[in-house]
Amino acid sequence: MRKINAIILSLSLCLMLVFNLGINSANATGVYDLPVINAGEDVWIFDDAQAISKTTEASLTNELRDLAEKTGNELRIVVINRLDYDETIDSFTEELFTKWYPTEQEQQNQTLFVLDTLTNRTALVTGEQVTSVLNSEITESVLKETLTVPLKSLQYNQALIDMSDRVVAVLSGQEDPGAPQIKEVNIDGTFATAEETDDRSATIWMVVLLGLATLIPMVTYFWYVGFPGN
Asked: Which of 115, 157, 180, 191 is the most exposed place for a label (fewest CB within 10 A)?
């Protein structure tokens, strides 16, 4: 009987594992799950995870379209919900870049940014012509500095806006604006020091004692002689 129960339990666990893997696979995004977007095509944002607002998507689309028209450099943004279990964000982005731009000629002026919202991992791949402007140092800074703060608080709209603004500036021939400055909170200035607390407490007690010293004799006097009018 114990053996039968053990077999049933093992089969149940196997079925649950297969079921969970099936669900995860269905929600995962592979390279060939995405439609092909060719170089020069007027499609700039593919939000498979539905993580950004329509307003942000429209704003980014206008910015990226304007970049392409003025410079010939194209930046496309892809947002997915999760990767296949055997993929990394870098391998996925490289494969998608090759799928969309299969020849070296097509890749020259292309930049592809991918965000996985499950892990908040990001990757940025560029063509050879773009790499001379958007170099590895700037790329690393974009991924590790520009995006860090908004992604930590799951602010996907702000993260993509900050990334796009910086990359577009560089691809437009402007000076790299760098990562947004993080304001430090002066914790020391927001709390009273021990000395300040003691001084305030002493002042309050002094006022209270002076008030009592004035009030108590008056109350005592009227208690004995009676209040006026009585």
From this structure: 191
